[in-house]
Design a protein that fits this description.
about 25% helix
Length: about 850
């Protein structure tokens, strides 16, 4: 990252030079005001000001927003004609009294922006430099000081199918901008090569400017070729700020003027883009917008004439429900949303009354899960839709029409079974570990007895981190949970529930019965020996310690399945009596609705799903908590870590309020300087301030590097490009950075099917990537079976085949969504599996 002290000095040095140069120019070059002889407007709504002129002069147009203001804005520069010159500007017209025209000599030009380079040199140096922008020249490979024509806009623009942090940019052509010294008299405007620099901070680091603080504004200019602009023609440029955030009217107005003055090809077709993220700020200042020359483009207006959009064209069955954003729908639900949720679990189908784009996160989830998804305008005003709420339906989304009708429970059940994994799955369960052990006595290989969360925590205590970074504590094995369930005959109750027709068919009944079952678990007795063991463990903590009891099941923290948020952790406070109370609360969470339905969909054996518990001292009044990933899974930057942090104890994994966390991309580097990029500031922290200072960022970078490398060896994933570790961390009230858990990142594909040692079998897939068909061949094996799994480990296809050595097999992949997959084949001759990754585009 740019050295702050050096940057401040450079900014002071530049300001001093600008001030001296401006003073010199004030004494040497004075513009002469010339009268406007004729005022009119053109068909684009731009002003046309005629002045008497000569070809040895050039003319600057000065503008003011109100007759009570000074002429502080310079909005255009025009080379003079021999007799008269018509002067215009990029934006819409003001009345004549808002304009002033100044004449300067071409032979002794002024320096309007005060950067030490005269206007005419910069005028002919567009777009690398600009007479109305103090920005120093940068390489066009990085960006420019102006956008002088559409060709330059195209050269600088990005056109990405998926922009993870801003759905409204998906599939659009856009150019990022950054304005430094925004609130000064000499703002610096840069237009960024947005294909090269995907993040504003990358550009800022490349050209050596500061990009943090209230005095910096960042955003993008999006081109909408089919939208009608303020000038009445097709082709609208619309700007907004990073993440779609809103700004006050004065900031928007200044941004609009600065961008337009340095985009001289604009013809009154630059608008302010209004999305759901900045509607509140716009509506608060709507009266000011009505009196200003800032056109606005509403995201909804882009689709004003669209009443139906079949986004993911397929079919499904399920229970049709109107769902609020804070509800958790189930895998059998066909959901109707009146506003789009931030995240979406597996559902059976999606209908929305608000516009989605094909690459919105909701539609991407629909594509991933292979479920129908459509936008339908005002669906509850359509009787055949409204009348089906809370009923089982068949829902088919086609390109130009949809079908929705009532369905039978038998149809729903049959459909649901057809899209689930075909075989039951047993999670790892080793009941041979029968003792509560200190973490220092638990190894990585004991995850099948204590759970991956517990085993991974214990393993990190061997990594040599400073004392206290990985907490001391105990692991309670699965054996205790199974004994507790058997002691109370709870598995008999589970069997009765699973065979209950109402439990199977009705989600409300299922939720109620699970709730009753959880209450029984919390109130149940434990064997005396178990109570004694737990009491002894509890007594080993220092007196007065609150003990955190955390879920460590055999159905979470696994390669390809994190299970984040499925189960509950509880804190046992000193005045709450026997610790069995908290242990039973953790046990009960194994049977909450979301966890049950997630297991049920993937056919995970409920009777072999077991709860271990990780117990360690609880830290109260934490200053920061967060999640870190040992790669950048969201923005695709290389050699970086991703950090998502929040102030205090507000949860990252299960936030209870609509607060935005801090997002940081942290360079892996091994030098003393910590390089990082702030993607988003925490809404709970003081404006533009880091939650963790650079010493903490340095620590977490070192810890993430060690965690990644060590677990890559343990998971035998050193050569696996999909491997990453996900850690949860916190800064305690005593300013110590601690790691509270580590698990494989959810998109890691475990190499569970590998060529055995000594085999010369080689699996070949081509073409790769593929769109329609992949040819599968094995040079030295006889394949009798193959399967395809996605990046979460979900089985998508399996087939029996017959092949001899060298035989090629055609595999149809047209039905797969775009993404990364693993194809595995069984060599029946050697009794081994061979596997290879492929990309479907």
């Amino acid at each position: 990252m740019t050295n702050p002290v050096s940057s401040v000095f450079k900014m002071f040095q530049r300001s001093l030079l600008v001030m001296v140069w401006s003073m010199c120019m004030a004494f040497s070059v004075q513009g002469q005001e010339v009268p406007i002889t004729h005022y009119s407007t053109n068909s684009n709504g731009q002003v046309q000001l005629k002045v008497n002129s000569n070809s040895e002069s050039y003319y600057l147009l000065k503008v003011r927003h109100s007759v009570d203001e000074d002429f502080d804005l310079t909005t255009s520069i025009t080379i003079g004609g021999q007799v008269t010159t018509t002067i215009t500007e990029p934006l819409g017209n003001y009345p004549i009294e808002h304009y002033q025209v100044l004449q300067y000599s071409l032979g002794a030009p002024a320096d309007t922006d005060g950067d030490g380079i005269d206007d005419i040199t910069e005028y002919y140096g567009l777009p690398v430099m600009s007479p109305l922008n103090i920005a120093p020249a940068v390489s066009m490979n990085d960006g420019s000081a102006a956008v002088d024509n559409m060709s330059t806009f195209n050269d600088l623009s990005a056109n990405q199918n998926v922009v993870q942090w801003s759905d409204f940019l998906n599939g659009k052509k856009f150019v990022k901008f950054i304005i430094v010294d925004f609130h000064t008299s000499n703002p610096v405007i840069y237009f960024i090569n947005s294909d090269l620099h995907r993040l504003h901070a990358e550009f800022a680091i490349a050209v050596g400017i500061e990009f943090l603080g209230e005095n910096v504004k960042k955003g993008q200019i999006i081109y909408h070729p089919t939208s009608i602009a303020n000038n009445g023609t097709l082709g609208n440029f619309a700007f907004n700020y990073s993440h779609g955030d809103g700004e006050d009217f004065a900031t928007v107005q200044r941004t609009h003027e600065l961008l337009a003055a340095n985009m001289p090809f604009i013809t009154n077709n630059l608008s302010y883009y209004i999305t759901a993220n900045n509607t509140d700020e716009y509506e608060a200042d709507i009266a000011l917008y009505m009196d200003a020359r800032i056109p606005v483009l509403f995201e909804s207006d882009l689709f004003a004439e669209v009443d139906y959009w079949g986004l993911n064209q397929t079919e499904g069955f399920g229970l049709f429900r109107l769902v609020a954003n804070d509800e958790i729908p189930g895998p059998r639900d066909i959901v109707l949303y009146e506003s789009l949720p931030n995240s979406l679990p597996r559902v059976a189908g999606i209908m929305s009354s608000v516009i989605q784009t094909p690459l919105s996160h909701v539609n991407l989830r629909a594509i991933q899960d292979g479920v129908p998804n459509a936008f339908i305008r005002d669906p509850l005003d359509i009787p055949e839709i409204a009348g089906l709420l809370d009923k089982y339906v068949y829902y088919n989304v086609a390109q130009s029409a949809y079908t929705i009708r009532e369905a039978t429970l038998e149809e729903v059940n049959a459909w649901y079974e057809s899209i689930r994994p075909s075989k039951p799955q047993d999670p790892p369960l080793n009941l041979g570990h029968t003792a509560i052990l200190p973490l220092d006595d638990i190894s990585f290989s004991m995850h099948d007895g204590y759970g991956a969360k517990c085993a991974n925590m214990a393993t990190m205590r061997t990594f040599g981190f400073p004392e206290g970074t990985i907490q001391d504590g105990y692991g309670i094995p699965f054996h205790y949970y199974m004994e507790f369930m058997e002691f109370n005959n709870f598995f008999d109750e589970v069997e009765l529930m699973l065979n209950n027709e109402a439990f199977i068919a009705e989600r409300d009944v299922r939720e109620l019965m699970l709730s009753v079952f959880r209450a029984k678990i919390k109130q149940a007795s434990m064997p005396e020996w178990m109570m004694d063991d737990l009491a002894a463990m509890h007594a080993s903590f220092p007196e007065g310690t609150s003990v955190r009891c955390r879920s460590s099941t055999n159905n979470e923290d696994l390669p390809g399945f994190s299970g984040a948020g499925l189960y509950d952790s509880k804190t046992q406070h000193p005045d709450e009596g026997h610790i069995s109370k908290s242990i039973k609360q953790v046990y009960a969470s194994l049977w909450n609705l979301r966890a049950f339905e997630e297991r049920d969909f993937y056919r995970v054996n409920h009777f072999k799903t077991a709860m271990g518990v990780l117990c360690h001292p609880n830290f109260a009044d934490e200053k920061v908590n967060g999640v870190g990933v040992s790669t950048d899974p969201f923005y695709g930057t290389s050699d970086t870590f991703y950090l998502n942090s929040q102030l205090g104890e507000d949860q990252i994994t299960n936030p209870e309020a609509a607060y935005t966390p801090e997002e940081i991309i942290l360079d892996r580097g091994n030098g003393g300087i910590v390089d990082y990029t702030v993607i988003q500031w925490s809404s709970l922290a003081p404006h533009d301030s880091l939650l963790m200072g650079e010493p903490f960022l340095h620590e977490i970078r070192e810890y993430l590097s060690v965690v990644h490398d060590a677990f890559a060896k343990l998971y035998e994933a050193e050569d696996n490009g999909t491997f990453a570790m996900d850690i949860e961390y916190k800064i305690t009230a005593n300013d110590q950075l601690i790691i509270k858990q580590a698990r494989p990142w959810v998109s890691y594909i475990a190499h569970t099917t590998v060529v055995s040692n000594g085999s010369d079998g080689t699996l070949t897939l081509f073409p790769n990537p593929a769109n329609e068909t992949i040819t599968l061949a094995c040079n030295a094996c006889n394949l009798s079976y193959y399967s395809i799994v996605d990046i979460t480990g979900r089985l998508l296809e399996e087939r029996l085949v017959q092949s001899e050595t060298g035989t090629e097999i055609q595999v149809d992949v047209q039905g797969l969504p775009a993404g990364l997959y693993v194809l595995s084949g069984l060599d029946s001759g050697k009794g081994i599996f061979v596997s290879e990754k492929f990309v479907k585009y």
